[in-house]
Specification:
Elements (H helix, E strand, L loop, with lengths): L16 H6 L4 E2 L13 E2 L6 H9 L1 H12 L1 H12 L1 H17 L6 E9 L5 E8 L2 H9 L3 E9 L6 H11 L16 E3 L2 H24 L1
Antiparallel strand pairs: 1-2, 3-4, 3-5, 4-6
The structure holds zinc ion (ZN).
Length: 216
Protein backbone atom coordinates (compact mmCIF):
# COMPACT_ATOMS: atom_id res chain seq x y z
CA UNK A 1 0.00 0.00 0.00
CA UNK A 2 1.31 3.40 -0.92
CA UNK A 3 1.91 5.73 2.00
CA UNK A 4 1.10 9.41 1.81
CA UNK A 5 3.67 11.86 3.24
CA UNK A 6 1.45 12.55 6.27
CA UNK A 7 1.65 8.91 7.26
CA UNK A 8 5.47 8.83 7.31
CA UNK A 9 5.60 10.40 10.78
CA UNK A 10 3.49 8.36 13.21
CA UNK A 11 0.63 10.53 14.34
CA UNK A 12 -0.77 10.39 17.85
CA UNK A 13 -4.43 9.67 18.00
CA UNK A 14 -6.66 12.71 18.20
CA UNK A 15 -8.20 13.34 21.61
CA UNK A 16 -10.25 16.48 21.97
CA UNK A 17 -10.01 18.60 25.09
CA UNK A 18 -13.63 17.80 25.93
CA UNK A 19 -12.89 14.06 25.73
CA UNK A 20 -9.76 14.48 27.85
CA UNK A 21 -11.72 16.44 30.46
CA UNK A 22 -14.41 13.79 30.49
CA UNK A 23 -11.98 10.89 30.95
CA UNK A 24 -9.76 12.84 33.40
CA UNK A 25 -6.70 12.72 31.12
CA UNK A 26 -3.80 15.12 31.71
CA UNK A 27 -3.16 15.67 27.99
CA UNK A 28 -5.13 15.99 24.79
CA UNK A 29 -4.01 16.14 21.18
CA UNK A 30 -5.58 17.99 18.29
CA UNK A 31 -2.92 17.31 15.66
CA UNK A 32 -2.88 21.04 14.89
CA UNK A 33 0.25 23.17 15.41
CA UNK A 34 0.38 25.67 18.28
CA UNK A 35 1.15 29.34 17.55
CA UNK A 36 4.87 28.50 17.67
CA UNK A 37 4.42 25.63 15.26
CA UNK A 38 4.71 22.62 17.64
CA UNK A 39 2.51 19.69 16.77
CA UNK A 40 2.39 18.41 20.32
CA UNK A 41 0.08 17.36 23.09
CA UNK A 42 -1.57 20.03 25.20
CA UNK A 43 -2.37 20.16 28.89
CA UNK A 44 -6.05 19.52 29.48
CA UNK A 45 -6.33 21.98 32.39
CA UNK A 46 -4.90 25.06 30.65
CA UNK A 47 -4.69 24.17 26.92
CA UNK A 48 -0.94 24.92 26.94
CA UNK A 49 1.27 23.25 24.35
CA UNK A 50 3.61 20.77 26.06
CA UNK A 51 6.63 21.87 24.00
CA UNK A 52 5.98 25.55 24.72
CA UNK A 53 5.67 24.71 28.41
CA UNK A 54 8.99 22.83 28.33
CA UNK A 55 10.71 25.83 26.76
CA UNK A 56 9.11 28.15 29.34
CA UNK A 57 10.19 25.92 32.26
CA UNK A 58 13.76 25.68 30.91
CA UNK A 59 14.06 29.48 30.67
CA UNK A 60 16.52 30.79 33.34
CA UNK A 61 14.18 33.70 34.09
CA UNK A 62 11.34 31.27 34.85
CA UNK A 63 13.64 29.16 37.02
CA UNK A 64 14.79 32.18 39.04
CA UNK A 65 11.21 33.34 39.52
CA UNK A 66 10.15 29.87 40.61
CA UNK A 67 13.03 29.57 43.09
CA UNK A 68 12.08 32.94 44.57
CA UNK A 69 8.44 31.92 44.87
CA UNK A 70 9.38 28.63 46.55
CA UNK A 71 11.25 30.59 49.22
CA UNK A 72 8.35 32.99 49.86
CA UNK A 73 5.66 32.44 52.49
CA UNK A 74 3.10 31.84 49.75
CA UNK A 75 5.38 29.27 48.15
CA UNK A 76 6.01 27.50 51.45
CA UNK A 77 2.28 27.44 52.22
CA UNK A 78 1.59 26.00 48.78
CA UNK A 79 4.23 23.32 49.33
CA UNK A 80 2.69 22.43 52.68
CA UNK A 81 -0.81 22.18 51.18
CA UNK A 82 0.59 19.90 48.50
CA UNK A 83 2.45 17.71 51.04
CA UNK A 84 -0.73 17.27 53.02
CA UNK A 85 -2.95 16.63 50.01
CA UNK A 86 -3.93 13.12 49.03
CA UNK A 87 -1.86 13.44 45.86
CA UNK A 88 1.20 14.76 47.69
CA UNK A 89 0.99 12.01 50.28
CA UNK A 90 0.58 9.33 47.59
CA UNK A 91 3.63 10.59 45.70
CA UNK A 92 5.66 10.75 48.88
CA UNK A 93 4.60 7.21 49.84
CA UNK A 94 5.54 5.90 46.41
CA UNK A 95 8.94 7.56 46.47
CA UNK A 96 9.59 6.37 50.02
CA UNK A 97 8.56 2.85 49.02
CA UNK A 98 11.11 2.89 46.18
CA UNK A 99 13.79 4.24 48.52
CA UNK A 100 12.89 1.70 51.17
CA UNK A 101 13.06 -1.19 48.74
CA UNK A 102 16.44 -0.04 47.54
CA UNK A 103 17.79 0.30 51.07
CA UNK A 104 15.95 -2.66 52.53
CA UNK A 105 17.35 -3.41 55.94
CA UNK A 106 17.09 -6.95 57.22
CA UNK A 107 18.42 -6.27 60.66
CA UNK A 108 16.99 -4.03 63.33
CA UNK A 109 18.75 -0.71 63.74
CA UNK A 110 18.91 1.82 66.52
CA UNK A 111 18.46 5.30 65.11
CA UNK A 112 18.69 8.89 66.14
CA UNK A 113 16.66 11.36 64.12
CA UNK A 114 15.74 15.01 64.29
CA UNK A 115 12.07 15.76 63.83
CA UNK A 116 11.08 19.32 63.01
CA UNK A 117 7.51 20.55 63.09
CA UNK A 118 6.91 22.54 59.91
CA UNK A 119 4.34 24.84 61.46
CA UNK A 120 6.24 25.88 64.55
CA UNK A 121 9.82 25.14 63.49
CA UNK A 122 10.29 23.42 66.86
CA UNK A 123 12.50 20.35 66.67
CA UNK A 124 13.42 17.48 68.94
CA UNK A 125 15.60 14.41 68.83
CA UNK A 126 14.08 10.96 68.68
CA UNK A 127 15.88 7.77 69.58
CA UNK A 128 14.28 4.50 68.60
CA UNK A 129 14.76 1.10 67.07
CA UNK A 130 13.20 -0.42 64.00
CA UNK A 131 13.75 -3.04 61.33
CA UNK A 132 12.47 -0.68 58.65
CA UNK A 133 14.20 2.63 59.11
CA UNK A 134 13.11 4.34 55.91
CA UNK A 135 9.61 3.03 56.22
CA UNK A 136 9.53 4.31 59.80
CA UNK A 137 10.79 7.65 58.57
CA UNK A 138 8.09 7.89 55.92
CA UNK A 139 5.42 7.03 58.49
CA UNK A 140 6.65 9.83 60.75
CA UNK A 141 6.91 12.52 58.07
CA UNK A 142 3.11 12.78 57.58
CA UNK A 143 3.31 16.23 55.95
CA UNK A 144 3.71 17.90 59.33
CA UNK A 145 7.32 17.14 60.18
CA UNK A 146 10.62 17.01 58.41
CA UNK A 147 13.02 14.32 59.48
CA UNK A 148 16.80 14.00 59.36
CA UNK A 149 18.39 10.70 60.25
CA UNK A 150 21.45 11.64 62.28
CA UNK A 151 22.76 8.18 63.05
CA UNK A 152 21.77 4.56 62.67
CA UNK A 153 23.51 1.36 63.66
CA UNK A 154 22.96 -2.36 63.76
CA UNK A 155 23.91 -3.41 67.29
CA UNK A 156 26.03 -6.49 67.90
CA UNK A 157 25.44 -9.11 70.59
CA UNK A 158 22.31 -7.38 71.81
CA UNK A 159 18.90 -6.77 70.30
CA UNK A 160 18.11 -3.32 68.98
CA UNK A 161 15.17 -3.07 71.37
CA UNK A 162 17.40 -3.90 74.31
CA UNK A 163 20.05 -1.41 73.26
CA UNK A 164 17.41 1.25 72.76
CA UNK A 165 16.16 0.67 76.31
CA UNK A 166 19.71 0.88 77.66
CA UNK A 167 20.35 4.14 75.84
CA UNK A 168 17.12 5.63 77.13
CA UNK A 169 18.22 4.65 80.62
CA UNK A 170 21.61 6.38 80.37
CA UNK A 171 20.54 9.49 78.47
CA UNK A 172 19.25 12.37 80.58
CA UNK A 173 16.19 14.57 80.22
CA UNK A 174 13.71 12.98 77.90
CA UNK A 175 10.91 15.40 77.11
CA UNK A 176 7.37 15.59 75.86
CA UNK A 177 7.41 17.13 72.38
CA UNK A 178 5.37 20.28 71.90
CA UNK A 179 3.06 18.65 69.37
CA UNK A 180 0.80 15.65 69.80
CA UNK A 181 2.99 12.69 69.08
CA UNK A 182 2.93 9.13 70.30
CA UNK A 183 5.93 7.49 71.97
CA UNK A 184 7.11 10.73 73.58
CA UNK A 185 9.48 8.92 75.94
CA UNK A 186 11.76 8.44 72.93
CA UNK A 187 12.15 12.17 72.44
CA UNK A 188 14.77 14.55 73.70
CA UNK A 189 15.37 18.29 73.62
CA UNK A 190 17.12 19.38 70.45
CA UNK A 191 20.12 21.33 71.70
CA UNK A 192 23.68 21.11 70.34
CA UNK A 193 24.87 19.69 73.68
CA UNK A 194 22.16 17.06 73.75
CA UNK A 195 22.80 16.08 70.14
CA UNK A 196 26.56 15.73 70.77
CA UNK A 197 25.93 13.70 73.91
CA UNK A 198 23.54 11.36 72.12
CA UNK A 199 25.81 10.87 69.12
CA UNK A 200 28.79 10.24 71.42
CA UNK A 201 26.81 7.73 73.45
CA UNK A 202 25.70 5.93 70.30
CA UNK A 203 29.26 5.88 68.97
CA UNK A 204 30.59 4.61 72.27
CA UNK A 205 28.05 1.78 72.30
CA UNK A 206 28.80 1.02 68.69
CA UNK A 207 32.53 0.67 69.26
CA UNK A 208 32.74 -1.03 72.62
CA UNK A 209 29.41 -2.68 73.20
CA UNK A 210 30.84 -6.16 73.50
CA UNK A 211 33.41 -4.99 76.09
CA UNK A 212 30.73 -3.16 78.03
CA UNK A 213 28.60 -6.27 78.06
CA UNK A 214 31.51 -8.43 79.22
CA UNK A 215 32.28 -5.99 82.02
CA UNK A 216 28.64 -5.89 83.15
ZN1 LIG B 1 4.10 25.08 21.28
Amino acid sequence: MKQTTEQVTPIKSIVTRAEALESDKTFYFTGKPCKRGHVAERYTNNACCVECMKAYQANPKTKAKKAEYNKSDAGKARRLRYDRSAKGKAIRRASDARFYQKHMLDEAVVYLMRMTCRDTGISWLKLGSTTHLYHRRSVLIDGQHTIDILHSMVPVEISARQLEAELHAVLPSSLVPPTVFSGFTECYADTPTQERLMLNTLAMYEVSLSELLKAA
